[in-house]
């Protein structure tokens, strides 16, 4: 929901220190408003710029930390989370727990990561076995086997900068079959790029060219630091190969289209449809020697990438493999490698001025490797049963509001309506943490082996996902940990996950009046519910099968509304000459508009006909919309904003706030009138649902 959408966005739709944020004293006998009036800029008319009105005073004084790419509520919440996770790690360090226990793994992973003296002393010794294996590649079969051996579970395959799909030519996603809901299959996904998106290689715009040049310099520096000959020539070969990989890839919009991804291939299809790779060697090395059925999510890209294995010089591939081994391991190699990587992915891409402190990076690394182990402790400490019960009731109310909206839509045929309501009724919602924790294959954590810990963690999660093959899908499976600041919709499971960390104050606070809780947490819940019926989610039925359950006329109406919303967002200009990408962001923008609508209607239903109280001089509707807007307060660096527009499926926060202009109730709440910038005549307000 907060972060970029993924296949945990195409097939998993996302939504993004003190112990708690400070709140004013609670008035006797009443509830807190949940709105910080000091953030409001009274010099701005709400109808001209609602984000600037709700957050303008805050933004004027907000400072971006030098080790951050933005300031805002997301950063504030991440600091709270960081402090909580630090306490969990500190407890593990003090526990002197038995080897192999969760606390001992947490402690040893952290110890290894922060032991920078040990990392410097070991130098390149930990990575040399991998380098020798790459140097030993003598032919295409050996190359194919190496590429297969490096295949890893891809739980974020649209993000080419994650471990799996940036450091490997392909990623593997294991989940329910698009067409056969009773079985799991492996989805093969495109990968191979070091930069976040193909456009960074193919665009001629000055900003992307600057990033590309910095990336090439980084590649050369890696080879230089590693003691390889001809680092500049090697960097040229790597960049040339990645440029060809980028040209072979499908773009973000095409990759989000489930019908384009619905390509069942058998094992025998790969050599015929994607010649060039030695697929037998690839699948055997990948641990799938007998798997027969696959789905090729980006088939044209798979064909072209396989062709590159045959057509590109073996030495180019070996240089590419070497570079990505170093890039993947940079954080646990001598500091010079980590610093070189930060120059591109921190300073150049996001404008971040300095690297985060090592202990903060270690907290994130422990969570990435041992998310479930940390999560079990996090859930027990920081998510009370009372909050879980209240949020479950909010979810029921919002789902009911969405259902009531479906029931009264005048443009929807009875057959389409019946299928939509059936799907809504079948949604499985997880709040806070999973009922059953997943079990990964055993893997060792050593206090003196940070690189080995990283690699063993990735291999264990890969084997966990392979272990799902041959078994029926688990609709209760969680794809996020409790300490994750995000939420997700899973179309294949027809399920939602709302982690505990996302449901903390001020998103949700039992001290707040319902208007604020529905405006902030409720809009998040509504957003994820609405993903069930966005431009991708609407393609799946109640059991997660890819199936058209629409009448032709209804689908045409739905698509027309989507086009209108895309056009609305494409008109927004993030920076001079830089417009938002309405089609790329469409699913998220549909979920924002429909989710906010459902949350608003659920809030009013929760009043049971009683008038909302006026608190701090604000009506219930004003508090609802202001809580929503203030939950998205953000101040990004310019480079980070450019990177988000280029490669994220979410609109930047400011323009997510402006979706209020599509809701009729917002206009009287703030006396918005014709002539104001955000004003839309009633017939121009986009209502997808």
Q: Round the Cα radius of gyration to an integer and report it.
A: 25 Å
Give the neighbour order of strands across the main sheet: 1-8-9-7
* C-alpha end-to-end distance: 19 Å
Largest sheet: 4 strands, mixed
CATH class of the largest domain: Alpha Beta
CATH topology of the largest domain: Collagenase (Catalytic Domain)
> What is the mean pLDDT?
92
Question: What is the second-level CATH architecture of the largest domain?
Answer: 3-Layer(aba) Sandwich
Domain count: the total is 3
Given as residue ranges, the uncertain stretches (5+ residues, pLDDT < 50) are: 1-10, 16-29, 156-164
Q: What is the count of β-strands? A: 12
Structural class assignment: alpha+beta
| Net shape | globular
Question: Helix count?
Answer: 29
What name goes with the CATH superfamily of the largest domain? Collagenase (Catalytic Domain)
Percent range for β-strand residues: 5-15%
* Helix content, binned percent: 40-55%
Verbal overview:
With 689 residues, the protein is an alpha+beta fold. Helix content is 51%, strand content 7%. A four-stranded mixed β-sheet has the order 1-8-9-7, with helices on one face. A four-stranded mixed β-sheet has the order 3-4-6-5. Helix 9 packs antiparallel against helix 17 (335-350), helix 18 crosses helix 19 (371-382) and helix 23 crosses helix 25 (586-606).
List keywords for this structure.
689 residues; alpha+beta; Neutral endopeptidase, domain 2; Collagenase (Catalytic Domain); 4-stranded mixed beta sheet; 12 strands; 51% helix; 7% strand; globular; disordered N terminus
């Amino acid at each position: 929901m907060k972060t970029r959408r993924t296949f945990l966005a195409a097939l998993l739709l996302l939504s993004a220190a003190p112990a708690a944020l400070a709140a004013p004293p609670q008035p006797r006998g009443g509830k807190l408003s949940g709105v910080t009036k000091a953030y409001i800029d009274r010099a701005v008319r709400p109808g001209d710029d609602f984000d600037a009105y709700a957050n303008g005073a805050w933004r004027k004084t907000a400072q971006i930390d030098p080790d951050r790419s933005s300031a805002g509520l997301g950063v504030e919440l991440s600091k709270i989370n960081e402090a909580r996770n630090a306490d969990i790690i500190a407890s593990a360090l003090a526990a002197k727990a038995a080897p192999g226990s969760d606390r001992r793994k947490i402690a040893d992973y952290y110890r290894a990561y922060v032991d920078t003296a040990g990392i410097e002393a070991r130098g390149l010794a930990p990575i040399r076995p991998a380098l020798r294996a790459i140097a030993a590649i003598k032919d295409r079969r050996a190359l194919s086997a190496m590429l297969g051996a490096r295949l890893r579970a891809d739980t974020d395959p649209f993000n080419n900068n994650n471990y799996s799909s940036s450091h490997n030519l392909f990623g593997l996603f294991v989940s329910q079959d698009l067409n056969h809901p009773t079985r799991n299959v492996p989805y093969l996904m495109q990968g191979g790029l070091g930069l976040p998106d193909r456009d960074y290689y193919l665009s001629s715009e000055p900003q992307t060219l600057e990033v590309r040049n910095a990336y090439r310099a980084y590649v050369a520096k890696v080879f230089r630091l590693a003691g390889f000959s001809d680092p500049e020539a090697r960097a040229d070969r790597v960049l040339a190969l990645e440029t060809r990989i980028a040209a072979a890839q499908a773009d973000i919009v095409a990759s989000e289209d489930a019908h384009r991804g619905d390509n069942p291939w058998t094992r025998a299809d790969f050599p015929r449809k994607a010649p060039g790779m030695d697929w037998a060697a690839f699948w055997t090395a990948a641990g799938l020697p007998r798997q027969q059925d696959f789905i090729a999510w980006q088939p044209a890209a798979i064909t072209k990438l396989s062709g590159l294995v045959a057509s590109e010089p073996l030495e180019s591939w070996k240089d590419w493999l070497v570079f990505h081994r170093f890039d993947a391991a940079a954080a646990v190699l001598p500091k010079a490698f980590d610093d070189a990587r930060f120059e591109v992915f921190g300073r150049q891409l996001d404008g971040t001025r300095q690297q985060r402190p090592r202990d903060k990076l270690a907290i994130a690394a422990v969570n990435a490797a041992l998310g479930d182990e940390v999560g079990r402790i996090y859930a027990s400490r920081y998510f009370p049963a009372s909050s879980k019960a209240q949020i479950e009731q909010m979810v029921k109310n919002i789902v009911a509001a969405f259902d009531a909206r479906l029931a009264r839509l005048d443009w929807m045929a009875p057959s389409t309506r019946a299928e939509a309501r059936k799907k809504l009724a079948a949604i499985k919602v997880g709040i806070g943490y999973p009922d059953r924790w997943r079990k990964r294959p055993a893997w060792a954590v050593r206090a003196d082996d940070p690189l080995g810990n990283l690699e063993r963690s990735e291999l264990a999660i890969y084997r966990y996902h392979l272990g799902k093959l041959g078994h029926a899908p688990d609709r209760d499976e969680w794809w996020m940990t409790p300490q994750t600041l995000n939420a997700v919709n899973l179309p294949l499971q027809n399920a939602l996950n709302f982690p505990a960390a996302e449901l903390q104050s001020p998103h949700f606070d039992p001290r707040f009046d319902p208007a604020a809780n529905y405006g902030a947490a409720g809009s998040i819940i509504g957003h994820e519910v609405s993903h069930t019926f966005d431009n991708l989610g609407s393609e799946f039925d109640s059991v997660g099968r890819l199936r058209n359950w629409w009448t032709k006329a209804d689908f045409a109406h739905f698509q027309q509304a989507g086009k209108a919303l895309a056009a609305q967002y494409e008109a927004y200009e993030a920076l001079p000459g830089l417009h938002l990408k309405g089609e790329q962001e469409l699913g998220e923008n549909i979920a924002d508009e429909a989710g906010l609508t459902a949350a608003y209607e659920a809030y009013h239903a929760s009043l049971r006909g009683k008038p909302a109280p006026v608190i701090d001089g604000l009506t219930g509707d004003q508090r609802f919309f202001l809580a929503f807007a203030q939950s998205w307060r953000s101040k990004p660096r310019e480079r980070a904003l450019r990177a988000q527009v280029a490669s994220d499926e979410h609109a930047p926060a400011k323009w997510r706030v402006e979706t209020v202009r599509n809701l009729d109730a917002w206009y009287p709440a703030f006396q918005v009138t014709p002539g104001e910038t955000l004003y839309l005549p009633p017939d121009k307000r986009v209502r997808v649902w």
